[in-house]
Amino acid sequence: MIRHLAASRWVKLGPLALALGFLSYGLYAERASVAAALHDLAWYSVAGAAVAVIAGLGCMMLSWRALLADLGSPLPLPAAIRILFVAQLGKYIPGAVWAAAAQVELGRGHQVPRRRSATAAAVGLLVTLATALLVAAVALPLSSGDAARKYWWALALALPALLGLYPPLTSSVVNGLLRLARRPPLERPISTAGMAQTVAWSLLGWVFFSVQAWLLVMDMTGKGLAVLPLAAGAYALAWAVGLILIPFPGGVGPRELALIAALAPIMSPGAAIVVAVISRLVNTIGDLAWALLAVVFAWRARRARAARGDAGHADVAEIPGTRWLTDMKTHRPG
Fold first, then answer.
1. Alpha carbon separation from 285 to 37, 139, 292, 333 (Å, rounded)
2. Cα distance between residue 218 and residue 240, in whole Å
3. Considering Cα of 282, then 285, then 287, then 290, what sign does the dihedral take?
4. Taking Cα atoms as reference points, which of 282, 284, 286, 236 lies closest to residue 262?
C-alpha cells in the first residue's frame, strides 16, 4: 500500500497544489497591496536580482564540480555545465529523484561512475543545505534580537549539518550506505581540501543569492543596507525549508510561504508576496539561462566531433534529445 501511495500522481501533486492554493489565496487577499508593490518595484532591481541568481547558480555548479573532482572525476567546465544544468530541470518535476537521476545518467556519458555521481549529488545537496542554514543562523540574529529568538532552531540545525561535512565522517556514512545497497565503496575518500573548496564555492553562491534577495527587499522597503541581514537570512532559511520538504518540486510553495513569513517584520504581506514571487521568477530565469548555455555547449561539442568524424563518447545532447525529460513519467532509475 505504501509503495502504491508513493507512486500515485495525486500523492505527489497534492502537497504542491495545496501550497500553491495558499499562495494564490494570499495573492488574491492582498491583491491591492500586491498591485501597488508591483507598480513600485523598479525593473533594474529585478534585472540585478536575475544577474545575482545566475552568478550564484554558477558558484553552486563549481561547488559540485570541485566535489566530483575530489572523488576522482574531474570534468571540463563545459561538460560540468551541460551535466548539471540540464539535469537540474528535473527538480521542477514532482518527485524527489529526477534531478539526481538525470545527473547520474548524463555523467555516464563522461565516464563518471554511477555511485560517484550519486555521491556527488547527495553530498553536494548536504553542503548547500548546511551552508544555507549557516547563513540563516548568522544573518538572522544580526537583523534583530527578536529574529534571533524566533529562529534559534536554524542554528540548532546548522550545527549537525556542518558536522556532517567533516570529510572522514562524510566518507564513512557514504560507504556505509553503499554497503547497505551492496555496492562497492568509494574509490577514494573525500579529502579535507576537496570539501573546503566545495564549501567555499557554496558560500560564495550564497553571497550572490543574498544580494538577489536584498535588491528586491531594499527596493520594496527603501531601507538600504539595513535590511541586508534579514533579507539574506530569510532567503537562506526559506530555501532550506523548501529543500527539506521533499515532495514539493523545486521547493515551490513552502519556500515562498517561508520567505513571506520571515520578511513580515519589515514589510506588508502584499510586498512580501511580491518579493517571494519575483524571487521565484528570477530563479527560474537563472535555471533556464544556464540550461540554454548547456544546450549550446552540447551542440558545439557535437558539431566538433562530427567535423572530426569522431564517434567518441556519448555527449549529453546524444542522450536522445533530452529523452529523460519526456520519459520521466514512465522511467524509473535503476
1. 21, 26, 10, 28
2. 22
3. negative
4. 236
Long-range Cβ contact pairs of 281-288 (< 8 A, separation 24 or more): 281/46, 282/46, 282/49, 282/50, 282/53, 282/212, 283/53, 285/50, 285/53, 285/54, 286/50, 286/53, 286/54, 286/56, 286/57, 287/57, 287/85, 287/88, 287/89
Q: What is the mean pLDDT of the chain?
A: 78
Q: Where are the alpha helices (DSSP H) in 151-268?
A: 152-163, 167-180, 192-221, 228-244, 254-263
d(CA 100, CA 93): 12
Q: Which residue has the higher pLDDT, 244 or 169?
A: 169
Domain ranges across the chain:
44-327
- DSSP letter assigned to residue 113: -
pLDDT band at 202 (very low <50, low <70, confident <90, very high): very high
Q: Tell me how far apart the 2 most distant CA atoms of the chain are, in Å.
A: 65
Give the contacts of 143 (CB within 8 A, at least 6 positions apart).
227, 229, 230, 233
Residue 230 near residue 262 (C-beta atoms within 8 A): yes
Q: Is 247:96 a contact under the CB 8 Å cutoff? A: yes
Are the C-beta atoms of 238 and 120 separated by less than 8 Å? no
